Amino acid sequence: MNRNPISHPSSEALALEKSYRLNDIVKQREKTLSRLNLKSGEKVLDLGCGVGFLAHKMAKIVGESGLVICLDQNKEMIEHTKKRCKNMKQTSFYICNAYDLPCEDNSLDAVSCTQVLLYVENISLVISEIKRVLKAGGRIIIVETDWRGVVISNSNNSLTKKIFSAWDKTVANPNLPVHLSPILKKNGFSKILVEAIPILNTEYNPNNFSHDIMKWITKNAQDSGTISKNERTLWINELEKHEKEGSYFFCVNRFLFSAFI
Length: 261
Prior knowledge:
This protein is an alpha/beta fold.
């Protein structure tokens, strides 16, 4: 079993800081908060908190009478979250994985889990652990991406397929959204609602999500030997060409799952 379930496309917290400030991700975060529907005094776990943007928002909502547990396996992420939540007494921080949560049984009102489960080999085990810590009537929010459905303006279909196939291999569950509802049902969750959160960019520039993520994805394909440096350059150059011509197009869906115990 992989005991390293919490990860990120980039290990550098500063890269995530930049990414999480983009309008596309801000909208996703606001949608997540809306679906969580937190109340003052509630206790919530942010599983895979990253650099703490969501945790900080949640801490403001639950107030000092509540609690936000920030958990990530990456120490650098936790350090950034601590700084972001400085002087917020309603926050606590843990460096650990998702298989053994530092929470008592039936102690939490909600759990959020964003872009974490695709890295987990035994998802059912993590979901059952989340169920353990939730109170009766507690809810879970999960956000995941399926990169197999990406649409992008690049005419080299063969190279595009290689690039995204290599990206699939970096995670344990690249096609997770298709399978997540049955896993939740099997572990006792109900009232499951699934919503698509499209990330749509018609410009290729640093202000949009796809700009840096395409660099990460193509670098992964090059580093794994799936494509050459020259092929990577050619593929990126075509994206830049479409930007200059006003014909750039990128879309991928993230999926927000909400469910109750």
